[in-house]
Please model this.
Amino acid sequence: MTSLEISHASLTFGRGESKTVALNDISFTIPSGGALGLVGESGSGKSTLARAVAGLRPLDSGVIRVGGVDITDIEHRRRRNVQMVFQDPYSSLNPAMDIGHSIAEVARTRGHQGAAVGRRVNELLDAVRLPTAVRDRYPSQLSGGMRQRVAVARALAAEPEILVADEITSALDASVQSAVLNLVRDIRQEFGLTMLFISHNLAVVRYIAEVTAVMYKGELVEMGSSPTLISSPTNEYTKELIASIPRPGGLDDLDPIT
Amino acid sequence: MRPRFLRTIFSSPLRAFASLALLALIVIAVIGPAIWGVEGDTPNPTTLNAPPGGDHIAGTDALGRDVLARVLAAGQISLLMALSATAIGVVLGTLLGAVPVVLGRRSQRILASVLSTWMAFPVLLVALFITILLGPGTVTAVIAMGLTMTPSFGRFMQTLAAEIESADYVVAGRMLGIRRGRLFRRYILPNISEPVLVYVTISIGNALLAMSALSFLGLGVQAPNYDWGRMLGDALPNVYTSPWAALIPGIAIVFAGITFGLAGEALASLSRNRGGAARPPRGVPTPQSPSAMETSATRLNQGNESNTEAHLVSGRSLDGEPLLSVRHLSVHYPTSDGWVSPVRDVSLTINRGEIVGVVGESGSGKSVTSMAINRLITNPGQVQARQLSFDGIDLLGIKEKDLRAKLGSRIATIFQDPMTYLNPALRIGTQLTEVLEGRSTRAEARERAIAGLKELRMTKPAERLNQFPAELSGGMRQRVLIAMAQIADADLIIADEPTTALDMTVQHHVLAALRKRCRENGSSALVVSHDIGVLVELCTRLVVMYAGRIVEEISVEQLLRQGPAHPYTEALLASLPTLETPVDKPLVTLPGQPPHPGETFSGCAMAPRCPFSTDECRTVLPQLELVRPATKAACLHPRNHAIASTERQNLDIA
Model:
């Protein structure tokens, strides 16, 4: 178990008129074994931050530390202790490789050899509640929910300390989403992961993470324990976000003519 | 396996011809020199330039050698040269084009610039230059040809690999620590192999033509060896007296060129038939082709001529009669495994001023239902219904042009992606006022458009009219579509996932705008969504679909007061986390997967996943029946008890 610390992370896209500030001086720390949920609309910078933590996008300035160690300049292919699960389960698995091999190849990079690889694959499939029979299947033969489980199993095979989950249930059906969310909660405990959990859905974030941070136009506008942030938001955008969650009669208090 | 393979080949004349021609070429190449080599090499002074016929079917050449035997014997070297040249091109092209994607940034840049420089040289010139430099000969010609083919292969591979490089699975592979060599072999190569194979096959034909050209010019194969190009060149001096000696190798070159071209086409058609490997295995065969959308867009925009007539019709209709009436609607699609029916026996009505929500998961048939009502199902999809009528107008047997005349713009459509509906080349103002053409002056129309946008809380409405769709955000585009419906005074708005692509806060405003439109003008709406929370907030009545059928139809009021009657609706509501869901307990889940659209059931499609199912459920297909006031459910064991407190909490927020 280890902590994730982001301090003064900034990133700007483009130059001149098309310049957009994707991340503006973002700082937070997720304690060892903790989970921070990040909400915000598209373009708020939440996915950019996820990619920066995973090493897929260098920062202009700022520092990322894992367990106190500065990893800011470490290339993503060497940043093994940070792993990410992507939004779209249909594009995040190699269509040309069966599930067994795609988990096994990651297990091998962690030093497993011979029969131990097969055992490890079964262990991981078990951890994500998939039958071992899926080893011989190809991604195209699996449903979205099953693929997302495989993606989680692969990430776990790399034995990460930090897991970044970027909108991992937004491409799934409602009845499948709840099962994947349950799984995320379980593996967090089982594997002692520190987690950065990103979603546009506040209710989903609240369920997974004890601390919620709200991003708006590249800035971290509000952060606090999830129940407090939801019951007594202080930032205007956070208030609007909470008021926008669909509920019976939710449209009555909003007059479109202003 | 084998009969199936043969069936695939012979299912199309193109594939059958290409395979047979390719087989013939291969056989000739393998056995040619052994069988006809000696005959083709033996000069016969008694039969110089003999015309076709007798002993020599294709005549003889200037040295009395049999032309046909020579052509058949030369097949091997001609094909081998083409294959070797292509192989050189493919290997070098892969090194320069595809391999760099797994290398570092710097090597990537260097190799890319090598490739670009190489591309700048004219192909044939390079080939000539190399052969002259190295001295004419078979090996030289092959190397020269291979080198000239390299840049186009390289560029092709580069484009394909670049696409794959940014795919999530390659990024994930890198993060997971997969080594470069493996990444290239197992991630990049297999996923670009299909188009590369097609391109390579076609290129072999081109290489054969080019190699023949080199030999023809005397730069390729040198005497006493000969290929088809060399034969052509040797026969040229006598082409007016004995044309056959040139004609026959010419035909061979053309035949081989065409064969490889067609084989490439055949391979391409095969991979098209199979579709991309990365596509989801289940889900409805997607009929929402862009052309279908365009058709409907033209319909809405051009069909105002008889609007007054349409209004007369609506004036005549009885008040109690529903605006939209659908009875026993089914939609069928042919697939390689027979017919699938994404919509089965759906009946629903929409009254004036009502907003009806259709909810379901992927593959439930909700979108296909709305498309069938909107007449957007195109060939080869088949729509069957006993009744499909809008305001007394029968939409079933009606012809496309009568439909426009009768309906005008009375049905408006809103899609998940508004760009499929908006014309990117026209200004917003033009598209908004188009629906009013002929009904009011331009200034009036403009004013109404501005008022419409203002009502939907669009900032700077007058400026928006001069903008193009691409300049607006997704939420604004969606509001433009609602404004269009408003300006056209549509009686029915059909919206398919109208807010799915939008941010929460924008969704809130768009939903409010939609409801306001219906409340104030008495318009009706059919809103399809995967999000039951959105529909509970927006609609007056809900239709829940599962596996192509309606499993529950319930007024939102009843749903909020009594809870749903169908276990599926119940599970759908309970599985959604809300702001009140206890975080220390697992979420309610529905075991298993939704069924495939092609699956057939003897009983209830939900039975395998349902906690309340009995043996009866697996054999008896439940009918949609009234089980409670304002609640119809297709279930043998409808839920009717006082609902548990956690579920009620979910309902409160859903």
Q: What stands out?
A: Residues 35 and 73 of chain B are 8 Å apart (CA to CA).
